[in-house]
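Note to self: user wants both folds in one dump. Writing first protein now.
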Amino acid sequence: MRERFFLELDPAAGVDPAWPRVVIVGGGFAGLQAARRLMNRPVRVTLIDKRNFNLFQPLLYQVATGLVPEADVATPLRRLLAKAANVQVLLGEVDDLGPAGRAVVVNGRRLAYDHLILAAGSGSSYFGQEQWRPLAPPMKILEHADEIRRRVLTALEEAEQCADPERRRRLQSVLVVGGGPSGCELAGSLHELLAHSVEREFRQLRPEHNHVILVDPGERLLRAMHPDLSAAAERSLRGRGVEVMLGGRVVAIEAGAVTLTQPEAAGPPSQRRIEAATVCWTAGVRASHLGRRLADLTGCGLDRGGRVIVQPDFSVPGHPEIRVVGDLCAYSHTPDARPLPGMAGPAVQMGGWVALDLLAHLQGRPMAPFRWTDLGSMAVIGPLSAVADLRGLRVSGSLGWLLWGLAHLAFMPAAENRLTLLTRWLWAIATNQRGSLLITGRINQHMDVPVGLEQVLTPEQAEPSDATAHR
């Protein structure tokens, strides 16, 4: 006998116990959109997430650099779904899947479903070098952004009290690994943070000693964008003072230093050791472990990144009741057969279409095939400066920033967050000041103070469960 749907413990008014049960794993872009499409429809929905909020990951770098506080990029899931009596949010972790019995195990309890939507997302990958994780925090969840901000600011605080000029230079240095949108945005924002904070607020530090290094193994930044925009981004970052190192591969990370290999015009690659008090990692992505578990149980395929290879309706072979969306799925049923990118736009479209297709199936009517609308890609590279590729329309500079801002505000799930974000952006533009430069948490590993606390990330901060960072 199947366990009762959780809502049946105290049925909500207007919810029919005979309605089909839909379980959604993950409250990111894809999972939340699916739940919203199913609001107040004749289905019983359970949304499961390890966090009680939806995180707007594209703006995490602004939390990391003190531009906005946490609350501006995170919205409680219950608030977003409060008006739907047929939707329940459960705070918990999916321990296991049971496709044969149509059930998932949540917090040690078995929860049955008629339809399952897996939107557990992705985490960070260090390409087998897990020992680097505590030394170079990724940027996937709020705790990562807080840790980056704490390390940068505490390094500056120590530099203010340091008599050794060489050590001050190291403490004023930040290295970012990964030249994708997240890496470029983080590097540009870190440069602005250091420039304005050191010049205005620190008395012993010199702005010319600030050093932000952006490292990427490729031949250009933002490889998913048009080469012209990549070149524009590189010019802008270099012009603002960011050192861009292309072709650099990280071979070792230790406390306060990174060793790279760089290609040479003639001869073998050379090695370079860069000393930087803070190192940030935006280079690798790995799919949730639930993808591998689903493959083991159903025989579905995985791509090289561990993403589930899905059918045109996002189901897995032999299990039409299971849909996989967002960063966890590899969807290649496109005109050019290229997988959809792991971005907010595709994730929202996947989640919304799967929900509507599910409703159409329950009503016995056909659903138009999924057609992805490419909304383009964009990245901020400095104050009032961004690059944007909008379906062939390529812009950079202030116009790119304006389009970037409008797009991000449009995707923000809560209206109050749109208002507060816009206010903070305008304030930062007008004053060059950041209102969230707080040092919170444990004493930073760079402080020479014997406090008896851990000097690195805790396991929970360094590598959260996959369902905490999803789309």
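First done. Writing the second protein, which came from a different request thread.
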Amino acid sequence: MNLFIQGHYIITYSLMYMISRYDRYGNPFTQIVETGRTIFINKSPIEVLAYSLRCIGCTLDGAIESSKWMLKMEKMVPIVANPFQEVVLFPTRSLTHEDSIWFNPYHIRRTSNIKGKTLIILSNLSSLYIPTRISSFNTKIQSVEQLKKMTTEVANGTFTMVLESEKRKEVKKTNTKQKD
């Protein structure tokens, strides 16, 4: 396994997961595990996401807001990390929690329950054991798939979303009364 230390990183499809670490002085850095290498970045995972999104013309705040709006979720939303390569990541904990691991579900081959925790088998046949219930973890994977499908269909012009349906009903009722 090759190790690289870098000052920045752009998220691509090869990212399997990233996790926050601390050096011996207490400074945060991110361990990024790709299919064939491990990279260390001298930023937190959320800073890696923000930098990567900015480099492709997006913002982290915009990506979070879009995910919350499209999925109607408030917490632990998946993030479209690279719309050009359709990379969507999800955190195991809150977006800013220092113990959160960010996964790319494209590389998750299998999940198993072991004593109330989750064993994750990745595409390169490595594995991780995390202190999260398998049902919670698999629900997060489903949220990613839903967001990925919605954003892909919107980009291709095949998805229709009804917004503020309650207001539309009120307008129809008002228009009907005026005609009488």
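Dump finished. Worth passing along: The longest strand covers residues 15-22.
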